[in-house]
Amino acid sequence: MVFDQSPIDPLEDLRTELPPSVILNTCGNDRAAGLAGARNTGIARAAGTLIAFCDDDDEWTPHKLTAQVALWRERPDAAVIACGISIVTLEGTVDRRPPMLTTREDLLRSRVGELHPSSFLFRRTDLLALPGGVDESIPFGYGEDYDFLLRVTERGPIASVPHELVIVHWDRDSYFAGRWERMAEGLSYLVAKHPDLLHDDRNAGRMCGQVAFAYAAAGEQGAARPGRVAPSPTGPSSRGRGSRC
């Protein structure tokens, strides 16, 4: 367990007893504060063959890893194994299952929202071979999972177990709730880093619309206008650099 340097939610309603076979080690995030640095800290300290993410307000069902490893034996070409999720909201529970197979080309057309980080299972060797690991330069870490999937699927597709094996809690406040400018900067960074996200007209409309909406909601109507240049991943934006929304 890695403490990501964010304010702690006691999560008293999610506490459970760990089975005797589970050994819990805790450490602080010694890299950039937030999700990206915390994930990289955990990857660096892990010693097992496989690595899986689980955010602190999500839960795994008892047979999640068993089902995923079994699928990997059937799909050894996969770079990631995912699964379905059950989203708990204040209004009830919604089940979502990702496609059985998702490629990088699919992700360039859509984020595929059914793919949730707490469902991901990786080979440790694949993560260590990924340049830079999880990108810690993404503003406020927003969209780090999308960027990560776009890069890791260059090594192979995502195969998914067709069952809901992760419980995702949306019945509490999100870290990004109302932080519109942070969302806009994170999404703009992704568009600049992966300009092929704009090659598909529908996905370009989706992402640029999200950026514009977020800036407008943050009160920056000027930044929400068409033609904005997304910030470059290697430095401040300037005319002619980055990708336009």
Provide an overview of this structure:
The protein has 7 helices and 9 strands, in the order ββαββαβββαβααβαα. It folds into 2 domains: 50-169, Alpha-Beta Complex (Spore Coat Polysaccharide Biosynthesis Protein SpsA, Chain A), CATH 3.90.550.10; 178-245, no CATH class. Helix 6 (180-193) packs antiparallel against helix 7 (201-217). The protein has 245 residues and is α/β, with parallel strands linked by helices. Strands 4, 5, 6, 7 and 9 form a 5-stranded mixed sheet that branches.
Strand content: 15-25%
Distance between the termini: 38 Å
| Class by alpha and beta content | alpha/beta
Q: How do the helices and strands follow one another from N- to C-terminus?
A: EEHEEHEEEHEHHEHH
Rg over alpha carbons:
18 Å
How helical, in percent, are the residues? 25-40%
Question: What is the CATH C-level name of the largest domain?
Answer: Alpha Beta
Low-pLDDT residue spans? 235-241
Biggest sheet overview: 5 strands, mixed
Tally of DSSP β-strands: 9
The CATH superfamily of the largest domain bears the name Spore Coat Polysaccharide Biosynthesis Protein SpsA, Chain A
Shape: globular
Tally of DSSP helical segments? 7
Give the overall pLDDT as a whole number.
84
Which CATH architecture of the largest domain? Alpha-Beta Complex
Number of domains: 2
In CATH, the topology of the largest domain is named Spore Coat Polysaccharide Biosynthesis Protein SpsA, Chain A
